[in-house]
Amino acid sequence: MFKSNSNKILVPIDFNEHSVDIALNYAIMLAKKFNLEINLLHVIEESGFFSRFFSSEDNEKIASQVEEKLKELAFNISRKRNIEITPMVTRGKIASKIDEVANLLDVAFVVVGASNHSDDSDEKTLGAQTHKLIRISNRPILVVRNPDFRPDIQNILLPIDLVPATRQIVPHVVELAQLSFSKITLAGGVWDDTDNKEMEHKTEFLLNQVQEYILNNGLECKTVFWNNLSSGKEFQKKLCEYGQSSEMDLIVALGRSEESPDYFISSNTLHLVSCSPIPVISIIPKERGITFATGRI
């Protein structure tokens, strides 16, 4: 995935502070670090509530103004930050169109900004379009919510559990860590609605296997483990707290499996992306032919 022929990042933008000040600035850091091009995308929602009140001529005028505004933004930032940025304007349903363009351009990942306000609802906190994009896309989605967060990747936090799909993202994270010269911390946990002793043994065994695999790939790696948790949601909360206290730069979340039905993704993943002040990247699990004692990845 990260060692594909792709040299592009897609940044959906709607001109608010989350997309411009947060997502775009973070994307610029990634582009410079990995020598990537940035594609700015604005989607004009054809079925939007207000569009019905304008004539087709008015809508074309609005689209032209948006295109000019996006071109100006791309030109100014390109000149100021010395980086190549390509602006694009298209029409359609926002999340679906972003995913369509991401696949068309074969981007390495999509960078989106999210609100930094907490909320009980994952969808409200993330924003409905970001929430949907994570659920439907087969591209890595990197969500950034803190404008003051250090724009670098040196320490990656990778949650590990016994779900086969979780193990399948390990090689992709190794590739990312090798490209960014990062250290990896593996995190595991057991909660009270499981057979703690058996699950604890299996999870710690898997953590040790994955750690050995990562070390054999020339990377630094350590593990953390929490038991007696109340639920998977508490595990996600622990990840967020540990990520902050240990100065992690990126947390990895499990994206939608390619074998899963459309729109199906773990609620734990959505909660992690919603609650984390640290950038989170959702990665699609793919089998790579690597076998651990607990299963093939």
SSE inventory with pairings:
Blueprint: E1 8-12, H1 17-34, E2 37-44, H2 56-81, E3 85-91, H3 94-105, E4 109-113, H4 122-126, H5 128-136, E5 141-144, E6 155-159, H6 164-168, H7 170-180, E7 183-191, H8 196-216, E8 221-229, H9 232-245, E9 250-254, H10 267-275, E10 280-283, E11 291-292, E12 295-296
Parallel strand pairs: 1-2, 1-4, 2-3, 4-5, 6-7, 6-9, 7-8, 9-10
Antiparallel strand pairs: 5-10, 11-12
Helix pairs in contact: 3-5, 9-10
Structure description:
This protein is an alpha/beta fold. The protein contains ten helices and twelve strands. The chain is elongated, with a radius of gyration of 20 Å. The model is unreliable at 118-125 (pLDDT under 50).
Count of helical stretches: 10
Strand order of the largest sheet: 3-2-1-4-5-10-9-6-7-8
Strand percent estimate = 15-25%
What is Rg? 20 Å
Q: What form results from the Cα inertia axes? A: elongated
Could you give a short account of the major beta sheet?
10 strands, mixed
Amino- and carboxy-terminal Cα gap: 15 Å
Q: Sketch the topology as an H/E string, one letter per element.
A: EHEHEHEHHEEHHEHEHEHEEE
- Which regions have little confidence, pLDDT < 50, spanning 5+ residues? 118-125
Helical content band: 40-55%
Number of DSSP E strands: 12
Find the structural class using helix and strand composition. alpha/beta
User: What value does the average pLDDT take?
Assistant: 83
